[in-house]
Write a structure and sequence with these properties.
Largest sheet: 6 strands, mixed
Helix content: 25-40%
Structural class: alpha/beta
Number of domains: 1
Distance between the termini: 21 Å
Catalytic activity: L-serine + acetyl-CoA = O-acetyl-L-serine + CoA
GO biological process, one term: cysteine biosynthetic process from serine
CATH architecture: 3 Solenoid
Number of helices: 4
Family: Belongs to the transferase hexapeptide repeat family.
Strand order of the largest sheet: 3-6-9-12-14-15
Number of strands: 15
Shape: globular
Strand content: 15-25%
Order of helices and strands: HHHHEEEEEEEEEEEEEEE
Main location: cytoplasm
Radius of gyration: 16 Å
CATH class: Mainly Beta
Pfam families: Hexapep (PF00132)
Length: 184
């Protein structure tokens, strides 16, 4: 767990140029706090302590403004920048090294107990207030523009924007990594 926390802090410092130091990231980054609460809730969910998991998830939503269902599957180094208003549904799957901004929804479009939330593959970037709806896949290193509504699969290395989201030809990719500061 400590290794994951340190990894998460390094990721935040690499992906957020406003991060001024380790202490600041540890103490004030609500997106990281939400992911840490999720990990506890998810472990309880996996051990069939469902009510306890949902209570922790609920407390996390109250404290961070981020709602992550404890049954969701989340990989390593998810960074939720600014956090507030993010919703990640029960059957969502998120790969490693995903960057997500505030107001993002990974929502379902079915009332049945089935895979009904998006899959976001490794390295994807999801812009502010984007809505990804249904059992769709956002491919590896794809980018979803701010405010987009995504209703169908997005191929790897593709940038989409709009309502409904469509590929943008020749879109420039935005570099979201900055060097980590070694002075912390």
């Amino acid at each position: 767990m400590l290794r994951q926390i340190l990894d998460d802090v390094r990721t935040a410092k690499a992906k957020d140029p406003a991060a001024d130091g380790t202490a600041e990231v540890l103490l004030t980054y609500s997106g990281l706090h939400a992911v840490w609460f999720y990990r506890i809730a998810h472990a309880l969910w996996e051990r069939n302590y469902r009510l306890a998991a949902r209570i922790i998830s609920h407390i996390a939503r109250f404290l961070t403004g981020v709602e992550i269902h404890p049954a969701a599957e989340i990989g390593e180094r998810l960074f939720i920048d600014h956090g507030m208003g993010v919703v990640i549904g029960e059957t969502a799957e998120i790969g490693d090294d995903v960057l997500m901004y505030h107001g993002v929804t990974l929502g379902g479009n079915s009332m049945r107990r089935e895979k009904r939330h998006p899959t976001v593959e490794d390295g994807a970037k999801i812009g502010v207030r984007a809505s990804l709806i249904g059992d769709i896949t956002i491919g590896e290193n794809a980018t979803v523009g701010a405010g987009a509504t995504v209703l169908s699969d997005v191929p790897a290395e593709t940038t989409v924007a709009g309502v409904p989201a469509e590929p943008i030809d020749g879109a420039a990719t935005v570099e979201t990594r900055v060097p980590c500061r070694d002075d912390d």
